[in-house]
Design a protein that fits this description.
Rossmann fold, ATP-binding, ABC-type oligopeptide transporter activity, P-loop_NTPase, six-stranded mixed beta sheet, membrane, 10 strands, four-stranded antiparallel beta sheet, binds adenosine-5'-triphosphate
């Protein structure tokens, strides 16, 4: 069995920005402009403290001109800073939103084209959480915190430059009293942040996955009485999620210690600065500059410490999203060689040779299956439940790639055909036809040929389904949430219509096992006759009536071809 590529529960968070670089590159100009404007905004903010210091010294020395110049500069700075702050915020939000939008599009596109084996190896809720939850968390970070992150970092660096420029002794006192204890508090936070936030994200993903499955199997749970047991399981997972969330909050609270350290540092600054000023080593204005600049220092440090939690959440989300992108890139079918389908005939023989296949739990489902379906063949595949019929149908359509052996159409390996070429050759109508919420027409649009209404009406006529569609309410009839207003047989009729619109050389129909009323069954059979005039028809047959109508039948037993027989007309 080929090893399936799996998502990592706790993907590596190191160098996450470097790994995200290819996704940032297309937006680099906008990002750089936004960051430069953000830096100018911070520089303007930091310049306020020295200007107030200047004004204080001018006042102290009764220098009216100096006072007026400093006051004028302060007013000008306030106006410039207002403009910079607003445009910086807008530019950064716009650039960040564009990055998030392209990540969202990429992950959805990758998932949509991911092989079935990859999708089946993961719980739907987990994939949903990565493509919606993590992207939403990133978008929220960009909208609310990215600008603060840039401005707090820049303000911190610029303020340190100002402090050292004015008095390295005072700056040192400030740094020694404030920075080491504050860093220790931060370190304490960071030590457990990754595990706490990662644990929270994983627990939430599990709850989301189980919740999604609850909706999918609600009917079975209610009818079979499994609801209490299922709810107990959900309760356990929910409790784990709550514990993980509490732990994340406790870890986040550790950074509140920084406020206490700030107070101590300000007292130290006033005492030491006042002593130096009284000795005439520095001016009063310098002490004022320091007090104001220290506020900038503390504020930006506190902003950064508040942001650490959000940065960590965004980092975890980004790592999980990059893991999804990397995994889906790895399983992406290789692009077919140029011209590989150019010589491929429209009709041809579908053949599988020595095919083996197994799911990820290690069981071999198909062994050494070799079958040939010449163009125009009409054949049924029968076998007991679990004998591998559905698996074979997915292999014949290229939805699964065999672990060993080949499946070819007119001599071309299905793996080497593009999705569009493949769907023009082989189409599967599965046992359970998936539908989207909306109208019949909306559901028929889901084929590669992008059919218009005239094409849909033509297909309905060709399959003799006019009465059925009229009774339903026409192409604009609503089918309910994911098609729940239609019976399993009617959903298969929609599947057949889709297949007719795709116009494939080979149609593989996995007959619905759910009870189909005789009228719908007759409609399906009639429609099938309408479809299969000049194309190959392979039916995974469950109904005796269907088997009787087919000229030959292949029997599968425990994943092997156990017999071929001619029957029917
Ligand atoms: N997605 C999957 N993951 C793991 N095992 C699977 C998966 N799908 C099918 N199987 C297993 O593969 C085996 C063959 O299943 P398959 O659905 O192909 O049989 P089948 O002959 O079509 O059965 P039925 O007539 O009930 O539809 C079964 O043992 C089944 O449990």
């Amino acid at each position: 069995m080929a090893e399936p590529v799996l998502l990592d529960d706790r993907p590596d968070e190191r160098h996450v920005l470097r790994r995200a670089a290819p996704h940032l590159r297309p937006h680099r100009r906008a990002l750089i402009t936004a960051v430069v404007v953000g830096l100018a905004d911070s520089a303007a903010l930091v310049a306020v403290a020295p200007l107030v210091g200047r004004a204080t010294d001018a006042l102290d020395h009764h220098d009216r001109t100096g006072l007026l110049v400093a006051a004028g500069a302060l007013v000008a700075l306030a106006v410039v800073q207002l403009g910079l702050a607003r445009s910086g915020e807008l530019l950064l939000a716009k650039a960040g939103e564009n990055v998030v939008r392209s990540l969202r599009e990429r992950s959805v596109a990758n998932l949509a084209s991911a092989p079935l084996r990859f999708l089946e190896s993961h719980r739907t809720g987990e994939l949903l959480r990565r493509t919606t939850g993590e992207v939403a968390a990133l978008a929220a970070f960009v909208r609310m915190h990215l600008r603060n992150l840039v401005s707090a970092t820049a303000t911190l660096v610029f303020t340190l430059c100002v402090l050292f420029f004015y008095s390295w002794q005072l700056a040192l006192v400030q740094l020694v009293v404030f920075v080491p204890p504050a860093l220790l508090a931060m370190r304490w936070f960071q030590r457990d942040a990754s595990a706490a936030f990662g644990g929270k994200a994983t627990a939430e993903a599990t709850v989301a996955a189980t919740f999604t499955e609850t909706l999918a199997v609600r009917e079975a749970l209610q009818t079979a009485g499994g609801l209490p047991g299922w709810m107990r399981r959900f309760g356990r997972e929910n409790a784990v999620a709550v514990t993980a969330a509490r732990r994340a909050v406790r870890v986040e609270n550790r950074i509140d210690l920084v406020s206490l350290i700030e107070g101590v540092a300000l007292v130290a600054l006033l005492l030491f600065g006042g002593w130096q000023a009284s000795r005439g080593d520095i001016s009063i204005g310098t002490v004022v500059t320091f007090v104001l600049a220290s506020r900038n220092l503390f504020d930006s440090f506190s902003d950064l410490s508040q942001l650490v939690g959000h940065v960590q959440t965004a980092r975890t989300g980004l790592a999980r999203l990059l893991d999804l992108l990397a995994a889906t890139e790895r399983v992406k079918p290789a692009a077919p060689a140029a011209g590989s389908a150019a010589d491929l005939p429209v009709r041809g023989e579908l053949r599988c040779e020595g095919v083996e296949y197994g799911y990820q739990d290690g069981t071999r489902v198909l062994s050494d299956v070799s079958l040939a379906f010449p163009a125009g063949d009409r054949v049924g595949v029968v076998g007991e439940t679990g004998s591998g019929k559905t698996t074979l149908s997915k292999l014949l359509c290229g939805l699964y790639a065999p672990d060993r052996g080949t499946v070819t159409f007119a001599g071309a390996d299905l793996r080497e055909l593009s999705e569009a070429e493949l769907r023009r050759r082989v189409v599967l109508v599965p046992q359970e036809v998936r539908m989207v919420t909306g109208t019949v027409a909306r559901n028929l649009e889901l084929v590669h040929s992008a059919p218009d209404r005239a094409a849909m009406e033509r297909a309905v006529r060709e399959l003799g389904l006019e009465d059925w569609l009229r009774d339903l309410g026409g192409l604009d009839a609503e089918v309910g949430v994911r098609g729940e207003r239609l019976s399993a047989g009617e959903r298969q009729i929609v599947g057949l219509l889709r297949a007719a619109l795709a116009d494939p050389a080979v149609l593989v129909l996995d007959e619905a096992t759910a009870d189909i009323d005789p009228v719908t069954a007759a409609r399906l059979e009639h429609a099938l006759d309408g479809m299969s005039e000049d194309r190959t028809l392979i039916v995974i047959a469950h109904r005796p009536a269907t088997i009787a109508r087919l000229p030959r039948v292949i029997r599968l037993e425990q994943g092997r071809v156990a017999g071929r027989m001619a029957c029917g007309s």
